[in-house]
């Protein structure tokens, strides 16, 4: 869905994307099918500004679960407006994976809620949480804003603390509380409103953080200086452009990432401006004077916004957008109108198109990861294999519990930057596919640089005992170390010497290095210093943080499995396949 029918008076997106238009269920199902079969996704968010208001959301969820739950595909909904929170939605959402439970309450007092054009009874929240806990949820997330017009001059920080404490008293769960500073946004009924200054916003947010016990609550708040910047940029006129340029030239980039936000660059640009940036940004605007953004027409009449502001002062609600519209904002005209979704999607068949069923069969396979693929992390690799199997039409088996994961296991994660010609992995799949077909199909679905080199099905243990995990059998690896062709100045002889020195110093006897003309062969076995991470050993032996930065490339050539004290062998032999 684009847009939202609700018209919360602080929400710019709610006015900007009017009128709301829903996508037909048929089209959504076709898009989900493409995401699952062509991309292999198993976690899909049904996104919009207010998904709970998508008409037929329950039928759609049921239909999608009927089609995809057996394939381990889960559907989550972004934060839902509480009044449209039907428990059946919760039940459908949790069918495969219980996704986060998020409540955008914004302000704690019901009278303040009405001013925002929201109505959320605290009892309703408690009811929903009680049911959610019965359905297995352990926690929930709450969003609040400080400095909203109805509570600007109120003791809102204490009200938020009381609200959360009372909730915990009624429904003890792990609560995450996120506090943001309200920024009066253009093209909303609150565009004329004042804003809290940084110091006061920080004081209120810190009070909430300190007052809610860390044992039951995890409180975080949006950087109050960043909120001030958002306000300066969103309600500033041309002069704000000069400050942006000045800050950029002083080094400000990636400001949306708190770790990169260069406050000094911004503060100096603001302090050297020839106008009082803070005062003009934070102060309420006059109704008589033109606003900098009046040059932009979002089809919502300013008269409508002014009336909505009046209603906010009285705590009067305005109904949701519907046809016929009883409170024309000016957005629906001509072809522009609300669009309801068509509901004529074929019902799901409960198994999902042609999905293999039956027991899980475990497959052991070796794979290569070369060239640019070395920069894909281990977690990426798990997802890449899961998706490659799904895109190839095979069905991974999933673990039980709160967050089912594909049954894929690796003998030992490979460090970022290290190549491999034969890492070992195992996957459980439904439907008993043939190994040749598996290898062919998956290799055409895997990204460049990654490929299955050999795959065998593991026979089920006659006594039903689970086979040992690959990691429990891990007995070590062989590597090659060679120059990567960039100038490094560190000769292979030097590397070999330092490695030997390291093994001797650490009294490690089951590891070794042998020098070849163009590369070193390094044998690493678990030892007193650890399970044998090649990069960790090179870091210490070469006394550098970045061994791969020294013009060396490292590749794992073989992995060995223990045979219960009788030496080591390759994994396929240990599993007799
Ligand atoms: S004209 Fe009415 S229905 Fe259309 S967007 Fe505005 S308020 Fe909503």
What key attributes describe this structure?
19 helices, pyruvate-formate lyase- activating enzyme, 16 strands, binds iron/sulfur cluster, alpha/beta, four-stranded parallel beta sheet, ten-stranded mixed beta sheet, Alpha-Beta Plaits, 577 residues, 3 domains
Describe this structure in words.
This protein has 577 residues and is of the alpha/beta class. The protein has 3 domains: 12-314, Alpha-Beta Horseshoe (pyruvate-formate lyase- activating enzyme); 356-467, Pseudouridine synthase I, catalytic domain, N-terminal subdomain (Alpha-Beta Plaits); 472-569, Alpha-Beta Plaits, CATH 3.30.70.260. Helices cover 34% and strands 17% of the residues. The chain contains 19 helices and 16 strands. Strands 7, 8, 9, 10, 11, 12, 13, 14, 15 and 16 form a 10-stranded mixed beta sheet that branches. Strands 3-4-5-6 form a 4-stranded parallel beta sheet, covered by helices on one side. Strands 1-2 form a two-stranded parallel sheet. The longest helix has 15 residues, at 25-39. The chain is globular and about 85 Å long. The two termini are 52 Å apart. The model has no long low-confidence stretch (mean pLDDT 90). Iron/sulfur cluster (SF4) binds at residues 18-19, 321, 325, 327-329, 331-332, 338.
Quick summary:
About 35% of the residues lie in helices and about 15% in strands. The protein contains 19 helices and 16 strands. The strands form 3 sheets. Strands 7, 8, 9, 10, 11, 12, 13, 14, 15 and 16 form a 10-stranded mixed beta sheet that branches. A 4-stranded parallel beta sheet has the order 3-4-5-6, with helices on one face.
């Amino acid at each position: 869905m684009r847009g939202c029918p609700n018209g919360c008076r602080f929400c710019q997106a709610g006015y900007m994307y009017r009128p709301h238009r829903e996508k037909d269920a048929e089209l959504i199902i076709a898009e989900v099918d493409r995401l699952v079969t062509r991309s292999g996704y198993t976690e899909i968010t049904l996104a919009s500004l207010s998904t709970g208001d998508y008409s037929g959301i329950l039928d759609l969820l049921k239909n999608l679960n009927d089609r995809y739950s057996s394939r381990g595909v889960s559907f989550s909904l972004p934060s839902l407006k509480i009044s449209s929170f039907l428990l059946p939605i919760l039940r459908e959402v949790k069918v495969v994976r219980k996704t986060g439970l998020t409540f955008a309450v914004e302000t704690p007092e019901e009278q303040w809620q009405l001013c925002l054009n929201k109505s959320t009874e605290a009892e309703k929240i408690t009811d929903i949480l009680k049911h959610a806990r019965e359905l297995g949820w352990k926690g929930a997330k709450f969003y609040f804003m400080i400095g909203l017009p109805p509570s600007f001059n109120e003791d809102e920080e204490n009200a938020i603390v009381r609200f959360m404490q009372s909730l915990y008293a009624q429904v003890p769960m792990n609560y995450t509380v996120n506090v943001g500073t309200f920024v009066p946004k253009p093209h909303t009924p609150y565009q004329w409103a004042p804003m809290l200054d940084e110091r006061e916003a920080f004081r209120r947010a810190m009070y909430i953080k300190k007052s809610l016990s860390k044992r039951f609550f995890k409180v975080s708040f949006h950087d109050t200086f960043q909120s001030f910047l958002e306000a300066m940029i969103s309600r500033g006129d041309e002069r704000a452009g000069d400050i942006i340029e000045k800050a950029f030239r002083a080094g400000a980039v990636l400001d949306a990432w708190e770790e990169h936000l260069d406050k000094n660059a911004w503060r100096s640009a603001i302090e050297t401006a020839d106008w009082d940036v803070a005062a003009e940004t934070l102060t309420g605007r006059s109704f008589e004077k033109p606003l900098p953004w009046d040059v932009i027409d979002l089809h919502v009449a300013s008269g409508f916004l002014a009336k909505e502001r009046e209603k906010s002062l009285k705590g009067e609600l305005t109904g949701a957008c519907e046809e016929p519209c009883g409170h024309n904002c000016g957005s629906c005209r001509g072809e522009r109108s609300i669009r309801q979704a068509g509901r004529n999607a074929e019902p799901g068949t409960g198994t999902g198109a042609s999905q293999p069923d039956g027991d899980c069969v475990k497959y052991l396979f070796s794979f290569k990861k070369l060239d640019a693929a070395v920069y894909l992390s281990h977690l990426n690799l798990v997802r890449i294999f899961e998706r490659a199997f799904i895109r190839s039409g095979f069905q991974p088996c999933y673990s039980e519990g709160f967050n089912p994961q594909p049954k894929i296991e690796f003998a030992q994660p490979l460090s970022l930057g290290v190549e491999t010609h034969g890492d070992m992995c195992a996957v459980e799949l439904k439907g008993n596919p043939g190994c040749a077909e598996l290898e062919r199909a998956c290799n055409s679905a895997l990204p460049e640089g990654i490929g299955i080199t050999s795959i065998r099905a593991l026979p089920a243990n006659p006594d039903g005992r689970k086979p040992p995990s690959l990691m429990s059998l891990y007995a070590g690896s062989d590597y090659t170390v060679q120059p990567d062709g960039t100038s490094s100045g560190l000769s292979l002889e030097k590397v070999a010497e330092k490695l030997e020195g390291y093994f001797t110093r650490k009294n490690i006897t089951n590891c070794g290095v042998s020098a070849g003309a163009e590369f070193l062969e390094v044998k690493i076995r678990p030892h007193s210093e650890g399970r044998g991470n090649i990069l960790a050993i090179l870091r210490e032996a070469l006394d550098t943080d970045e061994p791969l930065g020294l013009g060396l490339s490292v590749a794992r050539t073989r992995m060995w499995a223990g045979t219960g004290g009788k030496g080591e062998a390759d994994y396929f032999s240990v599993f007799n396949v």
